[in-house]
Design a protein that fits this description.
The complex is a heterodimer of chains A (about 280) and B (about 325).
Chain A (H helix, E strand, L loop, with lengths): L15 H16 L2 H29 L8 H17 L7 H8 L2 H5 L5 H32 L7 H27 L1 H4 L3 H14 L11 H8 L8 H8 L5 H30 L7
Helix pairs in contact in A: 1-6, 2-3, 2-6, 3-6, 3-11, 6-7, 7-11, 7-12
Chain B lengths: L2 E15 L5 E16 L4 E5 L6 H9 L6 E6 L8 H4 L3 E5 L11 H11 L4 H15 L14 H13 L5 E5 L7 H18 L2 E5 L3 H7 L2 E6 L2 E6 L1 H8 L3 E7 L12 E7 L4 E6 L6 H9 L4 E7 L3 H10 L3
Parallel strand pairs in B: 3-7, 3-8, 5-6, 6-7
Antiparallel strand pairs in B: 1-2, 1-4, 8-9, 10-12, 10-13, 11-12
Helix pairs in contact in B: 4-5, 8-10
The chains are: A mainly alpha (about 280), B alpha/beta (about 325).
């Protein structure tokens, strides 16, 4: 199709100032609901106690360690994973699907922004809020009550924050794909339920991936899910150190880019057939 | 031309249940061979009944819906392929949707939109001041959008659509649900925006007063086809839209069947209230009132204007 010459600067996918503003809005939006954050944090802490009790009962049977975890490392795994539940949105999200369903997506598409990257910026803001509101207390309280092993490996320490960031990106890219289903099926509760159940099992939320039987471990690492929860936990517990830690983060980066690219491909298909709901 | 539309068509495929598992496919043409253009600075009213194809057309103009056939150019751009470039030059208010951040104070939305449209700080500040003064937004800035009344939110929506000084402003039912005073204020602001900045406006509405106050040209779309393109007076005279004088009398009178230039429509309450229809191009309201007052003693009177549904229905009946 011929494209007319047009004045002005070319469209940048997402200018830095807009990304920052959207991230801040994502942060502020979640900061509005403090009681919800408090209730969520309480639940995460209680379930952490239950999860840790079961795992400690196991290592009592196995003589102090299991799959390379000692007592303090198990505690670190539990509190790290509980702290990350909200940060990486293990239980999924359907904001984008809701906007497709109601037709409000029309407003997002009528903005001079890249849809995927602007939603990513907003989600990073949300995750940053979750670190403070949902992450800190379970870590501090759990660590104080049950013990904590701080990572000593310099690579693991240095890469912990990037690993958490990339865990959010992997999780975002997966949720974005699931939400895009709304362009075809309108109601995504079905796909979302399957996604949440699969992620929860394979990401290492219920038990560490290292405790899986070999076949399940192979299956898990064929999916992006361990990279959105188990990976940062591995850096915190010392399961992954030195070059292994760098490899973990590199794998996260590769999964992030691949899943974001896939998301863009599907989004392009979706907007091609786009029918914005409602008048 | 800011807007150039040629032979635009959009089909939807509708699947209906036909038995337990079977579905039948139907193709519904929502917009059918529509052509029009809008010159810079014009205000075009785009009207039609519900389901006539107004929103479908607007979605195609904004690049959020792919046309089945035909050609669209907005500001010289191809909307679907250049959607994000176009978005910087067009502003839109969808009366039924919000472009503001629901959970955040109103002021935050304008800060975000400034960043999204890459407005330089000084420009953003002066433009926001202009909109805030004229739409009286200052007192609303700290309020979360979800707590605003509809009228307050619509003022915010219009400011949000105009913050980046777009060349084309698309308004889809901007006054829907507003009270009379809020409607009037909004119309006044839009009229000024147009005369002072030369902003081109495309307006869909169910309110004929919006059209009267703002538009110099009207398109009527009916069942997806363009049924009329011209001025409001031309439309009214073409369909013979009637104004109706309703008179309340001091005491019951015989039917006023002989008032020149009018047709007696109804007589209520044994002759206490009578409805006289007349066509604006044949006589004036003043002449009709004078003629009635010469015959009977008046207590009260009112004039009802033709509404859009009525005009469109008559256009349809007249063979479009």
């Amino acid at each position: 199709m011929p494209v007319a010459a047009q004045p002005g600067r070319p469209a940048v996918a997402l200018p830095a100032a807009a990304a920052l503003a959207l991230a801040r809005a994502g942060f502020a939006r979640w900061a509005t609901y403090r009681q919800a954050a408090l209730a969520g944090m309480f639940t995460n802490t209680v379930f952490g106690v239950i999860k840790l009790s079961v795992l400690l009962a196991i290592i009592k049977q196995t003589g102090g360690t299991v799959a390379g975890y000692d007592r303090d490392q198990l505690s670190t795994y539990v509190w790290m994973s509980q702290a990350l539940i909200a940060v990486v949105a293990v239980f999924g999200s359907s904001d984008l699907a809701q906007r497709v369903r109601t037709g409000d997506i029309a407003v997002d598409l009528a903005r001079p922004l890249d849809l995927q990257l602007s939603w990513l910026a907003t989600d990073l803001g949300r995750a940053a809020y979750a670190v403070f509101a949902r992450g800190v207390l379970p870590m501090v309280l759990g660590g104080a009550l049950f013990g904590f092993s701080f990572p000593t490996d310099p690579a693991a320490v240095a890469l912990l924050a990037p690993a958490v960031l990339l865990a959010v990106v992997v999780s975002f890219a997966c949720r974005f794909l699931v939400n895009l289903a709304a362009f075809w099926v309108v109601e995504i509760r079905g796909p979302l339920t399957i996604y949440v159940l699969t992620t929860n099992l394979l990401c290492g939320l219920i038990i560490p991936v290292q405790l899986f039987p070999t076949w399940l471990k192979v299956l898990a690492y064929a999916t992006p899910f361990p990279w959105l929860l188990q990976a940062p936990c591995d850096l915190a517990t010392g399961q992954s150190r030195g070059w292994a830690a760098a490899g973990t983060v590199a794998a996260q980066l590769a999964w992030s880019l691949a899943l974001l690219a896939l998301g863009r491909l599907v989004l392009a298909r979706a907007t091609r057939k786009l029918v914005v709901q409602g008048g | 031309m800011i807007v150039d539309v040629e032979h635009l068509r959009r089909d939807y495929v509708v699947r209906r249940r036909a038995g337990r598992f079977a579905r039948t496919r139907h193709v519904v043409t929502a917009v059918d061979d529509v052509s029009f253009s809008i010159a810079p600075g014009e205000c075009l009213g785009y009207i039609g009944a519900n389901g006539a194809g107004k929103s479908t057309t607007i979605k195609m103009l904004m690049g959020i819906l792919l046309p089945t056939a035909g050609r669209v150019r907005i500001c010289g751009l191809e909307p679907v392929a250049q959607r994000t470039v176009l978005a910087r030059r067009v502003g839109a208010v969808f009366g039924q949707r919000s472009q503001l951040w629901w959970d955040l104070p109103l002021a935050d939305s304008f800060r975000l939109l400034g960043a999204i449209h890459r407005l330089p700080e000084a420009l953003w500040r002066s433009r926001l001041r202009e909109c805030a003064d004229q739409l009286e937004l200052d007192e609303l800035f700290p309020t979360p959008v979800r707590e605003l009344s509809l009228g307050q939110r619509m003022r915010g929506e219009v400011a949000a659509a105009l913050l980046h000084s777009p060349e084309l402003l698309v308004l889809d039912e901007p006054t829907i649900g507003l009270d009379l005073l809020s409607k009037e204020r909004l119309r006044g602001f839009l009229a000024r925006e147009r005369t002072e900045r030369g902003t081109t406006i495309l307006l869909t509405t169910h309110d004929l007063t919006d059209i009267e106050r703002l538009s110099d040209r009207i398109l009527v779309i009916d069942h997806g086809r363009l049924a009329f393109d011209g001025t409001l007076p031309a439309l009214v005279s073409r369909v013979g839209a009637e104004r109706v004088l309703v008179v309340d009398l001091v005491e019951p009178a015989a039917p006023l069947a002989d008032v020149p230039g009018t047709v007696l429509r109804t007589v209520e309450a044994g002759g206490l209230r009578q409805h006289l229809a007349f066509r604006p191009e044949q006589t004036t309201a003043a002449a009709v009132v004078a003629a009635v007052a010469g015959r009977v003693q008046l207590r009260d009177l009112a004039i009802t204007e033709p509404d859009i549904e009525d005009v469109v229905r008559r256009l349809y009946l007249s063979g479009g």
